Amino acid sequence: MSEFINTIINDDTFKALKKIPSNSIDIGITSPPYNKGEKNKGWLVKNVLYDSIIDSVDESTYQNNQINVLNELFRVIKPGGSFFYNHKIRWEKGIMFHPVEWILKTKWTLRQEIIWDRMIAANIRGWRFWQIDERIYWLYKPINNNKIGEELLSKHSLLTSIWRFPPERQNPHPAPFPIELPARIIHSLTNNSDAIVIDPYSGSGTTLVAAKLLDKNYIGIEISKEYIEFSKERLINSQSEYRKLKEEIDKHFVAKTFKERKEKGENTGKHNKNQLSKRDFFNNPLTLFDLSKNDITN
Ligand SMILES: C[S@@+](CC[C@H](N)C(=O)[O-])C[C@H]1O[C@@H](n2cnc3c(N)ncnc32)[C@H](O)[C@@H]1O
Asked: Does the C-beta of 50 come closer than 6 Å to ligand 1?
């Protein structure tokens, strides 16, 4: 196992995972290729074309491959560990493919569906409202069949289930994460510095750079030698990305817990019908809970 720590394995994901011992990794984060067909579907930006693979197979083959990869990841992650799987809803000839269809066929417990609001996206054809969201599935490996697991600290859980990160633009890889995304996950879910973070489709190495900057170990898997070389450069120069990562970490902050507010007789968000009309509420629901920046998060 030690030979893989803080390295990027240049191989097919499924084959590489087979070499990793069971119950050895704390957490994983990935965005796999989406089987987008590589057809010209968007007008706004160029299509995602990878260096070493063709992202186009029969959809049932694709979903079965993803199920096999996710089940191998379930084997290598420790009980009580998590895997964050980024994907999106796709359509082919009007038929929707929703990631939950195959996620529910894996061994994982689906703990949460997070909306990633990217604020912009390539496809602006009018078949549907402009799809600018992707999804992030928090998958959990239960301990002794307890599917609930531990609570997040409130400084993390107050960040809500809608994550607004614009796409990364400074990176030549065709589909990179913004570094804030893996940073949010690693910072919220790991507190031991010997934790191991895996990204089984590591691309330009964003997850690995975030892990390194947060003082964790990492393992990447990537089929393209070119992307691995680029990732290695990034890892060497990781300090240059620290400022961006730090902006994310600074968002994990609670000035006062609900318990402290209650004890001091301050607003805990309890509805006071004399305070606001229904109309006020629908115009700005957050005012009801008095979630001003200084109050709860910053
Ligand atoms: C969506 S990208 C990941 C981007 C990454 N999150 C980042 O921040 O750069 C998916 C990556 O999976 C790689 N890939 C595709 N099929 C693979 C396979 N069978 N085995 C290993 N890597 C693969 C592609 O080369 C691509 O870099």
From this structure: yes
- Are residues 194 and 168 both part of a single domain? yes
Nearest alpha-carbon partner for 229 in 47, 27, 51, 33: 51
Is 266 found in the same domain as 126? Answer: no
Decide: 134 in ligand 1 pocket, CB within 6 A.
Answer: no
Give the single-character DSSP code of 2.
G
Contacts of 125 (CB under 8 A, 6+ apart): 41, 42, 43
The secondary element (H helix, E strand) that includes residue 210 is helix 206-213
Can you give the CATH number for the domain in which 198 is found? Answer: 3.40.50.150
- For ligand 1, pick from 19, 66, 223 the residue to mutate: most ligand atoms within 8 Å of CB: 223
Closest CA to 199 of 99, 183, 55: 183
**Under 8 Å between Cβ of 55 and 36:** yes
Distance CA 4, CA 17 (A): 11
Rounded to the nearest integer, the mean pLDDT of the chain is 88
pTM of the model: 0.88
3-class secondary-structure state, position 293:
coil
- The total of structural domains in the chain comes to 2
Q: What does the pLDDT look like over 108-150, one tens digit per residue?
A: 999 999 999 999 987 678 999 999 999 999 999 999 999 999 9
Question: Is 168 near ligand 1, meaning CB less than 6 Å away?
Answer: no
Residues of the chain below pLDDT 70: 38-48, 123, 269-298
Instruction: Summarize pLDDT for 229-244 with one digit per residue, the tens.
Output: 999 999 999 999 999 9
**115 shares a domain with 57:** yes
